[in-house]
């Protein structure tokens, strides 16, 4: 597991992701030339309040991989 600490909407939070998801997230951030935190903020802004952020990140990563495999 990889733990990420960052500020979202003005408050500190931490997220735990499996290394495999974190590695892909890091790769996408590098390709887009943005920070991992900025991608997580974008995901957080688009998710429904009742959804878990770590789960939402995993789904987002999966969707990005599926887009590139088409």
What would your notes on this structure say?
The chain is of the alpha+beta class and 70 residues long. The protein has one domain. It is 60% helix and 20% strand. The protein contains three helices and two strands. It has helices at 19-32, 36-46, 53-69; strands spanning 2-8, 11-17. It has a two-stranded antiparallel ribbon. The longest helix has 17 residues, at 53-69. The mean pLDDT is 91.
Short summary:
The protein has 70 residues and is α+β, with helices and mostly antiparallel strands. Helices cover 60% and strands 20% of the residues. The chain is globular and about 35 Å long.
- The dominant shape is globular
Number of strands: 2
Q: How large, in whole angstroms, is the Cα Rg?
A: 12 Å
The low-confidence runs, each spanning 5 or more residues with pLDDT under 50, are none
The largest sheet, given as strand count, sense and whether it forms a barrel, is: 2 strands, antiparallel
Name the structural class: alpha+beta
State the distance separating the first and last CA atoms: 29 Å
Mean pLDDT: 91
Number of separate structural domains: 1
Question: Helical stretch count?
Answer: 3
Oligomer: single chain
**Helix/strand order:** EEHHH
Strand order of the largest sheet: 1-2
Write the layout of secondary structure elements.
Layout: E1 2-8, E2 11-17, H1 19-32, H2 36-46, H3 53-69
Antiparallel strand pairs: 1-2
